[in-house]
Amino acid sequence: MDLASIIRQYYDPLIAKYWDTLLPGHLKALDAIGRCRTPESGEVFVQCSQSGQFATASHLLRTP
Question: Comparing C-alpha atoms, which of 44, 35, 41, 25 is closest to residue 4?
Fold first, then answer.
């Protein structure tokens, strides 16, 4: 599951539960992530600080 899908799935429940404590910046960040983390935007690569190896962020989110 990609990050944009998680945001779309839980956006409304999050707003319903935390509407009174969410700041405008939180909503702006969620909207930006939801727009940019799509298959069209490509993969996000991260580098291990110990080994120097690269992996995709989606690889790190998968459960074994």
Answer: 35
**What three-state secondary structure class fits 57?**
helix
Phi-psi region of 44 (alpha: psi -120 to 50; beta: other; left: phi over 0): beta
| The pTM of the whole model exceeds 0.85 | no
pLDDT tens, residue order, the chain (64 aa): 567 788 888 999 999 999 999 999 999 998 887 776 556 666 667 778 888 887 766 555 444 4
Distances (CA, A) of 64 to 43, 54, 57, 61: 20, 18, 15, 10
